[in-house]
């Protein structure tokens, strides 16, 4: 679940002043329009308020591994399994694919209607050639 927006500097100042003047959490809450638990968390440790880093699942592939993947992929037609084997990565091929997709430097051109039309014409032409040769 995400976090609520932090107090602005002016709200922090208002909370501090009201607390020093002896106002209750309920009065501060009504004036600043922030929850009492948010006010309490600020007053418990105002110096470190909002400095906690978001945690999450660590990546299987380090940034160095991602750079190496992009370096290998950038100018070769290797498969995902070949890349994985060359770099000795102990991850699945989908993870390698995700790293390539995330990089935004390796981009596959979208196929257009003109490409599809030419492709079908080429296949049609090749089948005619094969039929005429046999």
TrEMBL record:
GO CC terms of this entry: nucleus
Compartment(s): Nucleus
Ranges where the Tc3 transposase DNA binding domain occurs: 11-50
A GO molecular function held by the record: DNA binding
Coiled coil: none
Gene3D superfamilies: Homeodomain-like, Winged helix-like DNA-binding domain superfamily/Winged helix DNA-binding domain
Domain Transposable element Tc3 transposase-like DNA-binding HTH span(s) in chain numbering: 64-103
Entry protein name: HTH_Tnp_Tc3_1 domain-containing protein
Organism of derivation: Caenorhabditis japonica
């Amino acid at each position: 679940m995400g976090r609520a927006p932090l107090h602005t500097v002016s709200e922090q100042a208002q909370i501090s002043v009201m607390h020093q003047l002896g106002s209750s959490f309920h009065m501060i809450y009504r004036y600043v329009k922030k929850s009492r638990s948010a006010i309490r968390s600020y007053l418990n440790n105002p110096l470190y308020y909002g400095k906690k880093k978001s945690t999450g699942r660590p990546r299987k592939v380090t940034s160095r591994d991602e750079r190496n993947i992009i370096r290998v992929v950038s100018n070769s037609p290797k498969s995902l399994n070949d890349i994985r084997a060359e770099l000795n990565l102990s991850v699945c091929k989908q993870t390698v694919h995700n790293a390539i997709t995330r990089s935004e430097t390796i981009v596959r051109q979208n196929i257009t209607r003109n490409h599809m039309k030419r492709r079908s014409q080429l296949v049609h032409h090749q089948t005619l050639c094969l039929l005429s040769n046999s």
